[in-house]
Amino acid sequence: MLKDWNRMEQPSDEEMESRLKKAKERLQQQQILIMQKKLPVLVLLEGWGAAGKGSVLGKIIKNIDPRFFKVAVMDEPTKEEKRKPFLYRHFVKIPEAGKFVFMDSGWLSEVTKQKVLGELSDEDYKKRIESIKRFERQLTDNGYLLLKFFLQIDEQEHAKRLEKLLSDDNTKWRVSKYDMWQSRHYNKSMDIYEQYLCDTNQSSSPWYIIDAGSKKWAHLQVLEMLVQGIDTALMNSALAVPLLQNAFPLKQIEKLSEVKLDKTMTDKEYDTALDKYQKRLNELHNEIYRKKIPVIIAYEGWDAAGKGGNIKRITEALDPRGYEVHPIASPEPHEKARHYLWRFWNRLPKTGHVAIFDRTWYGRVMVERLEGFCSENEWQRAYVEINEFEKELADWGAVIVKFWVHIDKDTQLARFKERENTPEKRWKITDEDWRNREKWDLYEEAVNEMLKKTNTAYAPWHILESNDKKYARIKALKTVIEAIEEKLDKH
């Protein structure tokens, strides 16, 4: 792309001024439309050091109400960020609906730098590229406008600008060691930029190469493409997104109606097993912390199935400094205004820590599907998007354990009545629980489809037969232990 790129002819100063004025006026008008249509706009500014990203960015944002944009300067990953998945620090920066986020550098800079310096193997580079392509496609599929600009300058201009910055005590701090390395290895850097741009140039999020030889010309190019991109996105906002075929291997799993719920355990068996498995899980918690292995335990299940008690028996075995339980309720307004997976990316554990989710991202294909909180196209797409999300976590090195806590309809009714008749448990039963119960058959159909389409080899489902809570608790402990031990054997 860079090597066969043909520069556009630079217009005269008079024409540039005229076009800049027109584009600025249009961008000011578009802000209102963006808010009304709830269009989130993510602008990624990449390019050579000293190519003028900061200058262009400063001029663009002058035309936007400061209440409706944020600027994210993506420096080197922090120590804390390095303990999260690669995409974490980028995903959490995405804008709310109706607002802008401008990124000064991003995932291109991070990946190309690691690749050119030999910090990424060819295989790891390929995995990063696949992650990035899925990330960008998920954003555009979910209504984001993603505009990616690469500011290009030639070798002589690059060296000239660095020299000018270094000559002034007030600006020399802006030149990094990597900028100087790039200047000495311009052609090598050009090769990796060329490869990356070709690898990630998608129809839904193409790269725009900007001639950055002149700052005013670079400003006009970015501004006009931004305005054009917004106009196109506003016209296409109502279009449905084509569904993708699942690309990950799935394992067969039985339907809920086929699960036998007659499994029981005596109090004595339970007490003995509980003590044994909690001690073992405690030992494993120390080991995963030492080896920096993250663990994600996801709970879904029927109301009153016993998720809370099940979670309690797991957390009793863990060091409280090394785990967090996330009870997931309806999304807050700022969460609802972003990609539905955003609030789960925000809650991912650090390496060596455990995150337990009481309700999960699967709400998209259950409650949101059945209660009409998202469109059919959105929940149909979610199966593949969730598989991709969990693949990202698995490739990061996480242990993923997913539980469906299962009971029959009669058992649920008995537990609902018990809660109503027990003052200290009455808070647990709500009108919504009764309404959901009336839709049992619809929910069962949705759950069966969810299990079938997301039971992957790297993140399988485990059904906990919970008519007997004691049996389910011990099975959960054993399942978590086995998953961690399997991971440690491979580590």
CATH topology of the largest domain: Rossmann fold
Quantity of strands, as a count: 10
Specify the CATH architecture of the largest domain.
3-Layer(aba) Sandwich
Q: How many separate helices? A: 19
Q: Give the N-to-C terminal Cα separation.
A: 40 Å
Average pLDDT works out at 96
- Spatial extent as radius of gyration: 26 Å
Largest sheet: 5 strands, parallel
Shape: elongated
Number of discrete domains: 2
Summarize the structure.
By secondary structure, this protein is α/β, with parallel strands linked by helices. 50% of the residues lie in helices and 12% in strands.
Q: What would you say this structure looks like, in words?
A:
- The protein has 491 residues and is an alpha/beta fold.
- The protein has two domains: 13-235, Rossmann fold, CATH 3.40.50.300; 256-490, P-loop containing nucleotide triphosphate hydrolases (Rossmann fold), CATH 3.40.50.
- The protein has helices spanning 13-37, 53-61, 88-91, 107-116, 122-141, 155-166, 177-184, 186-199, 215-235, 267-290, 307-315, 333-336, 342-345, 367-370, 376-396, 409-421, 431-438, 440-454, 469-490; strands at residues 41-47, 69-73, 100-104, 145-152, 207-211, 295-301, 323-327, 354-358, 399-406, 461-465.
- The protein starts with 12 loop residues before the first helix and ends with a helix.
- The mean pLDDT is 96.
